[in-house]
Design a protein that fits this description.
Chain lengths: ~270, ~80, ~350
């Protein structure tokens, strides 16, 4: 459960060894777009030696490897899979490529959906067991659809809603597309709120200065926390089954959700 | 033929390898005073791990930690071997 | 995130040229590879390669503390590696010298506006090696530096005169292969023509003198006039390295009344080296000064009988050989260039 997923370039020792100072809940070490073709091997070796040397309890670490159509896909997994990290971000994910990856690893998979076809068939991907989250890559998607990105992002309203619904149905985390303007923090906040309204649970980030805004928007609200506390308090006295709180039925799934929310709030030091 | 790996960014280093009659390590570093010996140790251990004895190595270090030096050298070694094949 | 892109389209090149001009820099005509660095959609830096010379570095003021130069340098280094070029050079503003020295480059010479650095080799070592290879003594001696494209009786006269006045004479032949006659052939002709002069040694200039590195403008067409600054690097390399290493105390020049650029070069040499320079009057034939360009014109018109009047036997013999015939064909098939 993370609010913020910050991409860091995989071939840059300066940012790797400082990955815990950015306040992001999760870090995605990137071997794909931020690494040029002729330095793929450098980046892979660097990440290998970095993760062999350092262990992190927080933040959670994911690796964005290269997609299955590249010659780097197998090398990335073969070299890095034995190391200590939470999971993979698989670019240009399809049902087939996620299955290929899941045959090679037991780690968690975040499917990066960024082609029109992957959005059409998103539910088949989200329903796969190892897929713990999906990440919307709106830049590549809109480019492929030949539509312009707008500040209001109304062009991705439908795909946000679609993914939010499907992720909710499969209890999978939905991570929103990154906001690209580095300096416009006010518009970043609007963008986060818009994504949250439509059902996103977290947001990916490409500029470290975006972390605080994203964390704030995707944190549980004080109202939600108070409500969860009340549920858990009442649950203490009702060991079994459902009970009534303020005229509403409270059952096991609701109690579990409240527990998760409180755990999250503790983790984010909101309690 | 030379091969190289790394960059001139701070916290990184650039390593160049060149076939030579014997082992030679040339170290340029912003922190040579304090860490020159340590850098040399990492380089020599890594080379020894690959049984490499006939090479001239030049490192231009911009404050890289050991893992970075090792990683850059491993990449350079693989590139050198790929070139030989 | 910064992105490095190579210049591919004419409009990209125009954009780089405009960017350089805004900062009072020129895009040079011998460039064969250029990169642009973008921050999002903004062009913030550029650098170029002319074969083994990195030049035209520019980073926008507001980005100057972000090691953009290091990234561009690294990028160009990998291009050179892919081209199997080890020995390379950097031309840049003197204020940037520190940055390049931090990448293990060595300063060769510096003028008011320019510094020339080299990587992977050192001029002192290279010249000392050359000195050893040609078994050059430490006695005081004179020097002549010629391209001899091809060698004429004018060159012969200059060498003979200098040899007569000196204990020892070094004849440096321009190594750069940018002339009608290849270096190897020009070198061999001079060696053969000077065989009878026992105090003369013929040797190459190496990369460091009258080359595309130290003197790129020398190889441009005659109609492009050179400026003082552009010859200064070459003059300084000669003065700071060739003179002390080879123990040269006199350099002989042939007077050049008809070539603006050579004349200009000679003037600058004189102004920096004073008495070290001795100018010899141009040898004339039928009241016409003999020059290599005149000889090439005659070859072009296939008038070899007339050529015979202006060149030493070694050059004429060469022109009769199969190798020489091939060059003659090449000259005749091309439109005439200066070199």
């Amino acid at each position: 459960m993370s609010r913020s997923f910050l991409f860091l370039p995989g071939n840059n020792p300066g940012s790797l060894q400082n990955l815990d100072i950015f306040n992001a809940d999760s870090i995605i070490i990137d071997l794909e777009d931020s690494v040029t073709f002729d330095t793929k091997d450098e980046a892979r070796d660097l990440v290998y030696h970095f993760l062999s040397k350092f262990m992190f309890k927080t933040p959670s670490i994911y690796l964005r490897i290269n997609d299955i159509s590249t010659p780097f896909f197998n090398d990335d997994i073969d070299v890095l899979d034995s190391l200590e990290f939470k999971g993979y971000v698989l670019p240009k994910a399809t049902k087939e490529s996620v299955i290929s990856l899941s045959k090679k690893t037991d780690k968690s998979i975040i499917a990066l959906l960024e082609t029109p076809m992957s959005l059409v068939k998103s539910e088949a991907i989200i329903s796969l067991k190892q897929v713990d989250a999906v990440l919307l890559g709106a830049e590549d998607l809109t480019t492929a659809m030949k539509i312009e990105s707008t500040v209001s992002r109304q062009e991705i309203t439908y795909v946000r809603s679609k993914l939010a619904l499907e992720c909710a149905a499969h209890e999978t985390l939905f991570i929103d597309t990154p906001y690209t303007d580095k300096d416009d923090l006010a518009q970043l906040k609007n963008d986060c709120l818009q994504a949250k309204i439509l059902g996103a649970n977290a947001k990916s980030i490409i500029h470290p200065n975006h972390v605080d805004v994203v964390n704030t928007v995707f944190s549980p609200t004080t109202h939600q926390i108070a409500n969860a506390k009340r549920i858990l308090k009442k649950a203490e006295t009702h060991q079994k089954g459902a009970f009534n709180l303020d005229g509403k039925m409270i059952d096991k799934p609701i109690i579990n959700r409240a527990k998760n929310l409180i755990a999250q709030a503790k983790k984010y030091q909101l309690l | 033929m030379n091969v190289s790996a790394g960059s001139y960014e701070s916290n990184d280093c650039l390593i160049t390898l060149e076939p030579a009659a014997e082992l030679e390590c040339i170290i340029h570093s912003v922190v040579k005073e304090q860490f020159g010996e340590q850098i040399e140790l990492v380089l020599k251990q890594t080379l020894a791990g690959h049984n490499i004895t006939h090479v001239k190595l030049v490192i231009n270090d911009k404050g890289a930690l050991d893992y970075t030096i090792k990683a850059r050298l491993e990449t350079a070694i693989r590139r050198m071997r790929d070139l030989d094949e | 995130m910064f992105q490095i892109k190579e210049v591919l389209l004419e409009e990209e090149k125009a954009k780089v040229i405009h960017f350089l001009h805004e900062n009072n820099l020129d895009y040079e005509t011998d460039i064969d590879y250029t990169i642009m660095v973008y921050d999002e959609d903004e062009l913030i830096a550029t650098a170029s390669l002319a074969r083994n010379v990195m030049k035209c570095f520019l980073v926008k003021k507001s980005y100057q503390d972000q090691n953009i130069t290091g990234r561009m340098f690294r990028h160009l280094e990998t291009i050179l590696e892919a081209r199997s070029i080890e020995h390379f050079f950097v031309y840049t503003d003197p204020t940037n010298a520190d940055i390049f020295e931090s990448f293990n480059m060595n300063v060769i010479v510096e003028t008011m506006n320019t510094v020339l650095l080299e990587g992977n080799k050192n001029i002192n070592q290279v010249l000392h090696l050359l000195k050893k290879e040609y078994d050059i003594s430490d006695a005081k001696k004179s020097a002549v530096i010629i391209n001899a494209n091809p060698m004429t009786l004018g060159h012969m006269y200059l060498i003979e005169k200098a040899a007569l006045e000196s204990e020892e004479l070094l004849v440096f032949v321009v190594s750069e292969d940018a002339s009608s006659f290849p270096f190897e052939d020009r070198f061999m002709i001079i060696k053969n023509a000077t065989e009878h002069l026992h105090n003369v040694t013929v040797l190459p200039t190496s990369n460091y003198l009258v080359s595309k590195i130290t003197f790129p403008k020398y190889f441009l067409k005659e109609d492009q006039l050179i400026k003082d600054e552009q010859t200064l690097i070459d003059v300084l390399v000669y003065k700071e390295y060739f003179v002390p290493i080879f123990k040269i105390n006199k350099r002989y020049l042939g007077k050049e009344p008809y070539s603006y650029n050579t004349n200009k070069y000679n003037e600058i040499l004189q102004s920096h080296l004073g008495n070290h320079i001795k100018v010899i009057e141009r040898k004339e034939s039928d009241n016409k000064p003999i020059s290599a360009s005149l000889v090439r014109k005659l070859i072009k018109r296939n008038n070899l009988e007339k050529v015979k009047k202006y060149v030493p036997k070694a050059t004429y013999d060469y022109l009769q050989s199969t190798r020489g015939q091939k060059i003659i064909e090449q000259i005749q098939s091309k439109t005439l260039r200066r070199h």
